Amino acid sequence: MNIENRVALGLGGNMGNRLYHIAWAQQLITKNIGQIIQCSPLYQTAAWGNTDQPHFLNQVIVVITPFTPLQTLQKCLQIEKSMGRRREIKWGPRLIDIDILLYNNIKIQQDNLQIPHPFLHQRRFVLQPLADVLPHFKHPSLNKTLQQLLTECPDTLPVTPFYP
């Protein structure tokens, strides 16, 4: 088992005390998935998809984990559930969202897991914090750096630094 797997996780939420929920998710990730080695700045972003809802707080973290991609996904879902996440409305309000964005340099296409995250290059609220922590990382499928993808991103929704 490789204990040096690096996984980039996107954290976000727009219900309740958003800052507290991000910090709580980080604690649970450290306890259940692995050591956080990088954190992007926090960003406040307009809702994407279902836009009639409060603004989100978003961040990307990089974690070293011994777990496989599927085990990591299961742990992320368990953390979301333990924090009170309910999946009722697609792209709806949420207490916490934990997405696997990248896992090492691999590509996975399964019904329940797609790595790299299939929409990361189309969403500025994901690309900005991801490019903050891994600007020179090449997207395994698109063969462009995350900084290049951010520059080319068609999403124009504002992504604003958040200072608590």
Task: Provide a descriptive summary of the structure in words.
This protein has 164 residues and is of the alpha+beta class. The chain has one domain: Alpha-Beta Plaits, CATH 3.30.70.560. Helices cover 28% and strands 25% of the residues. It is built from four helices and eight strands, in the order E-H-E-E-E-H-E-E-E-H-H-E. The mean pLDDT is 92.
Number of helices: 4
Oligomer: single chain
The Rg value, from CA coordinates, equals 15 Å
CATH class: Alpha Beta
Shape: globular
Number of domains: 1
Low-confidence runs = none
Helix content range of the residues, please? 25-40%
Cα-to-Cα separation, first versus last residue = 39 Å
Q: Output the CATH topology.
A: Alpha-Beta Plaits
Known CATH architecture: 2-Layer Sandwich
Say how many strands there are.
Answer: 8
Query: What class, by secondary structure content?
Result: alpha+beta
**Major β-sheet annotation:** 6 strands, antiparallel
Overall mean pLDDT score? 92
Q: Helix-strand pattern, N to C?
A: EHEEEHEEEHHE
- The CATH superfamily is 7,8-Dihydro-6-hydroxymethylpterin-pyrophosphokinase HPPK
Fraction in beta strands: 25-35%
